[in-house]
Amino acid sequence: MENIELIFVFLLGICIGSFLNVVIYRIPKQKSIINPPSSCPACGARIKPWHNIPIIGWFILKGKCANCGAKISIRYPIIEVLTGLIAVIVYNKTGLNIFFVTNFGVFATLLALSMIDFDYKAVPDSLNLLALTLAFFTSTEIMNNFTNALILMGGMSLIRYYVSYFIKREAMGEGDIIVGGTMGALLGIKLALVALFIGSAIAIIPSIYNRIKNSDLELPFIPFLALGTFIVWIFSDYFMQLWSNIYG
Questions:
Q1: How many other C-beta atoms lie within 10 A of the C-beta of residue 191?
Q2: Residues 82-111 pLDDT 10s
């Protein structure tokens, strides 16, 4: 029975991943995510249903549009696989219940936000607020989650104002602060701080590379915050024990 549920959860995840690809492409362009049906960005030809099957469709088409031969990014099946894996990981921790829906919803939305941030260095408030709202309901302690979100957002805003003043440029985007609220609601204050540290540590090497290679001072930060959050959420017991060992 458990194996059947795992298969169901993975298939559900890759289907959601297919929808995320639509969200990632259309929302930044302010297009409807419902109409029109999926079509080739190059020639506008409608994508046939059997070509739109998650993961398999990309391989059937050999990564090219069936009509014009335009290349289809491999990122599409990668997003689908990642979303399927996220669904399985969340299921293994929460079981198949309402908290699976809310926790998976948060991480799926963070994945979409991460990809959009990579592409545009900005994220839509609609998705960011969706992740934050879902995070309030990831446990039974809804008011406590809300309070933790406020504390993290307030703290990050305070840091933003001070650092921006001293370095004479924007130190942190508003989108990052909303994600901070999501982290607080989802993880609690202590674990959210750990996730912030891990996300920042992971971002160091890409940031240096980006500065040297592209002479770009701006690095999308939300993908690293999301990754740090996911790592800490998965191993929350370990990180909480580590926190207790260090700080008592």
A1: 21
A2: 999 999 999 999 999 999 999 999 999 999
